[in-house]
Structures are given as structure tokens and as C-alpha cells.
From TrEMBL:
<dbReference type="InterPro" id="IPR018499">
    <property type="entry name" value="Tetraspanin/Peripherin"/>
</dbReference>
<dbReference type="InterPro" id="IPR008952">
    <property type="entry name" value="Tetraspanin_EC2_sf"/>
</dbReference>
<dbReference type="Pfam" id="PF00335">
    <property type="entry name" value="Tetraspanin"/>
</dbReference>
<protein>
    <recommendedName>
        <fullName>Tetraspanin</fullName>
    </recommendedName>
</protein>
<keyword id="KW-1133">Transmembrane helix</keyword>
<feature type="transmembrane region" description="Helical">
    <location>
        <begin position="36"/>
        <end position="58"/>
    </location>
</feature>
<feature type="transmembrane region" description="Helical">
    <location>
        <begin position="6"/>
        <end position="24"/>
    </location>
</feature>
<feature type="transmembrane region" description="Helical">
    <location>
        <begin position="195"/>
        <end position="215"/>
    </location>
</feature>
<comment type="similarity">
    <text>Belongs to the tetraspanin (TM4SF) family.</text>
</comment>
<keyword id="KW-0812">Transmembrane</keyword>
<feature type="transmembrane region" description="Helical">
    <location>
        <begin position="64"/>
        <end position="87"/>
    </location>
</feature>
<dbReference type="InterPro" id="IPR000301">
    <property type="entry name" value="Tetraspanin_animals"/>
</dbReference>
<keyword id="KW-0472">Membrane</keyword>
Length: 234
């Protein structure tokens, strides 16, 4: 089940087109590689679990030992990844900022990923990555003689033009009726608010993997003799 969850998360990162992940994966090869790694780890975990079930039912020690070894390698890989993410968080934050700045510069309002970003700005009531100033480098806004701004940044509490969901809107004055908070602040607030849940899920998966390793070794020791004739041939 845990392997299926991990593989499912990797597939979601690759296939999902309705979330913030869509915006990042179009420009970040690191995210794509990480997603494929998750799919591989999840698939391997499911395969090894299936083989361990056969080993447990028919008391085949080599399959139980193989399951223990694979779980140990997966657990080491997960801990290593967590440590790298923690110590490289500033580098990851910088990479995300670079990706988002490139994305905002080329924004036109017609792509699916751009509609997702519009939805995020509307839902989180934010504008730009670090603030509305990120949009000043947008090609269309920069080359226009009008006061243009992203429609999804529109702050309804400020008087101005009608609210639109996507694309660029024209402001009546130089003072743009937009949110002043950058979306990175909203994302960080969400992560801090759900920190306990995220940590709990990660610890829970690690505990289950440790239990699987312990139980596989206990069963492996209790098997006195390997009898491969017990393994079904079909």
C-alpha cells in the first residue's frame, strides 16, 4: 500500500494539470526526475512486497532477505533525500524563484499551466511570486502603453475594472488594483500550517517500513530450512 501511495504521488506530479505542480514541471527537469524516481521506488516496493508475501507463505528465506535488503535501501534513499532537501532548501527556493520569474515573463493567459497559476493567485489572494513587481518584466505588460496587470491579481476590495479569471486586464489609473502579497508567502504559510501532517505522514511511512524489515527478519530466522519445492510453478 505504501509503495502504491509513493508511485501514485509520482504519477500525480507527472500527469496532473490542475495544480501548482504543473507550473513547475514545465520548466524544472529536477522535479520530473524526482517524480520518476518516486515512481520507480513505489513500483520496486510493490514488487518486493509481493515477493515477500510469497516468501512468507511458502517460507522461502532468500525472498524474505531480498525484501529486507530492498526496504533498507529504500529507507536509506528516503532519509538521504530528506536530508538533502533540508540542507539545500535555500538552493531549491532560489531555483523555484528562477522558474517562476521565467514563467511570469512569458505569461500570455492562454496555456493550461497559466490558467492553473491564475487559479492559484485568485484562491490564495496573491500576486506574483515575491510580489506584484514580478509582473513588470512580462513581455506584454512591458511593451504596452496601457496600464496592464494580470486579471487574476485583481483585488475585489479595490475599485477598478471588472474581475476576470485569466489573461491581462487594463487598469484605469497607474495605481493597479492588485494584491500586494506574493504567492511565495501564501505557499510558505500553507506548508507551515500543514507541517505536522506532512511530517506525520513521512514518519508513519518510515515506521511501517521499519516494522516490515523487523518482521521479515523475524520470519526469516524462524524458517529452519529453505524448501524451494513449496514455491508454486505457475
Amino acid at each position: 500500500i505504501c509503495g502504491g501511495v509513493i508511485m501514485g504521488f509520482g504519477l500525480w506530479v507527472i500527469l496532473d494539470s490542475q495544480s501548482f505542480i504543473t507550473v513547475l514541471q514545465e520548466s524544472s527537469t529536477t522535479l520530473k526526475v524526482g517524480a520518476y524516481i518516486l515512481i520507480g521506488i513505489g513500483s520496486l516496493s510493490m514488487l518486493m512486497s509481493f515477493l515477500s508475501c510469497i516468501g512468507a507463505i511458502y517460507e522461502v528465506r532468500c525472498l524474505l532477505g531480498l525484501y529486507f535488503t530492498c526496504l533498507l535501501l529504500i529507507l536509506i534513499a528516503q532519509v538521504t533525500a530528506a536530508v538533502l532537501i533540508y540542507f539545500q532548501r535555500d538552493l531549491l527556493k532560489h531555483e523555484m524563484s528562477t522558474i517562476m520569474n521565467k514563467f511570469l515573463v512569458s505569461y500570455t493567459g492562454h496555456k493550461t499551466s497559466e490558467h492553473v497559476w491564475d487559479y492559484i493567485q485568485i484562491g490564495m489572494k496573491c500576486c506574483g511570486w515575491t510580489g506584484p513587481s514580478n509582473w513588470t518584466e512580462n513581455v506584454q505588460i512591458k511593451n504596452s502603453s496601457k496600464y496592464l496587470y494580470p486579471c487574476s491579481c485583481r483585488n475585489e476590495s479595490i475599485s477598478g475594472t471588472d474581475v476576470e479569471a485569466t489573461g491581462l486586464c487594463e487598469a484605469l489609473t497607474e495605481e493597479l488594483p492588485v494584491f500586494t502579497t506574493g504567492c511565495i508567502s501564501s505557499v510558505e504559510d500553507w506548508l507551515h500550517g500543514n507541517y505536522g501532517v506532512i511530517l506525520g505522514v513521512c514518519v508513519g511511512i518510515a515506521v511501517i517500513e521499519l516494522l516490515g524489515m523487523i518482521l521479515s527478519m523475524c520470519l526469516c530466522k524462524s524458517v529452519q530450512q529453505e524448501d524451494y519445492t513449496k514455491v508454486p510453478k505457475y
